[in-house]
Design a protein that fits this description.
TIM Barrel, eight-stranded parallel beta barrel, about 325 residues, globular, alpha/beta
Length: about 325
């Protein structure tokens, strides 16, 4: 594994959407806005603010308009949101959303479970939203789910993944996120698929999105970097998951990944200490422990006082 040599890795924070959508208790709008405003000052490339889905589908994000309209926007940060359809796109445009994040799955079964549509139906809808975004001058990234495996179908053929990327790029997608939706990816698979995508579509920006379901999220991130991926989604505290993917636990934790990359000599523009502080605030906000490890253990060079000296036993 090569060291970072100062290479910059762009970090996208997805906790406000991908993370909070999985929480049982509704986080008040004021708290969401305060959280995003705090994250905006930390040095992220993007922050996924919310989802313009129906309140019935994701009640945790029923305040999408209010949150997107009220956040303080930091220059240089892209404020993106998940867009499910044309109506969601119109709502997002009215709130000055910087980028659309569209979703479909490389797996037919997962797409039916998650979106209640076939992949062809999803593609037709995405193509319409991409055209709407293009007309409004807004970039449209597509998060392609289950590219490293489906919990219902098993392996997903790499050639099928390439075919969908080809069609999405032809439809005008400005970027593709390769999503390990269920934490099924493993390093050699990640490196091979990412390298193949970058070679086949050299002009298309790719983002990596990994889950830590089987404790391989960090090493999969490194495998993607080795292949040439330079931008990644991750979630503060490791919160999140997929409600339609059995056994899928949280995203890789931002503080865990940034700590690893910093140790290896990569640059992210983020401070591990600031992320730990933000995770502590998020934990208080949610009222339960977070799965991330660095926010509990601290930086690897965190100092601890030595134990008190013990009196010597009598001879």
């Amino acid at each position: 594994m090569n060291d970072g040599n100062g290479l910059h890795i762009a970090i996208n924070e997805v906790a406000p959407r991908d993370g909070l959508q999985m929480e049982c208790a509704f986080v008040p709008t004021d708290d969401k806005v305060a959280l995003i405003d705090a994250l905006s000052a930390l040095g992220y490339a993007k922050i996924e603010v919310t989802s313009f889905t129906s309140a019935k589908a994701i009640p945790a994000l029923k305040d999408a308009e209010a949150v997107m309209q009220r956040i303080r926007r930091m220059p240089g940060v892209v404020y993106t949101a998940l867009i499910p359809n044309g109506r969601g796109a119109e709502r997002a445009l009215a709130c000055r959303t910087d980028e659309f994040n569209l979703v479909m799955s490389a797996s037919e079964t997962h797409n039916l479970a998650n979106l209640r549509m076939t992949r062809e139906q999803s593609f037709a809808q995405l193509a319409e939203v991409i055209a709407l975004a293009r007309g409004a001058g807004v970039p449209a990234n597509v998060s392609l789910s289950c590219v490293f495996g489906c919990p219902m179908e098993g392996e997903v053929a790499a050639e099928d993944v390439m075919r969908w990327i080809d069609r999405l790029a032809a439809a005008g997608a400005t970027g593709i996120t390769l999503c390990d939706t269920t934490g099924m990816a493993y390093p050699t698979q990640v490196q091979a698929l990412c390298a193949r995508a970058l070679q086949r579509f050299p002009g298309l920006p790719f983002t990596g999105h990994f889950h830590n379901t089987r404790a391989m999220g960090l090493v999969n991130t490194l495998a993607a970097i080795e292949a040439g991926i330079r931008q990644f989604d991750m979630s503060l505290g490791g919160i999140g998951g997929c409600p339609y993917a059995p056994g899928a636990s949280g995203n890789v934790a931002t503080e865990d990944v940034v700590h690893m990359l910093e140790c290896m000599g990569y640059r992210t523009g983020l401070s591990v200490d600031a992320l730990i502080d933000a995770a502590s605030h998020l934990q208080q906000l949610l009222g339960h422990a977070l799965p991330a490890q660095v926010s509990r253990a601290g930086h690897r060079l965190r100092r601890h006082a030595p134990p008190p000296s013990q009196p010597r036993a009598a001879a």
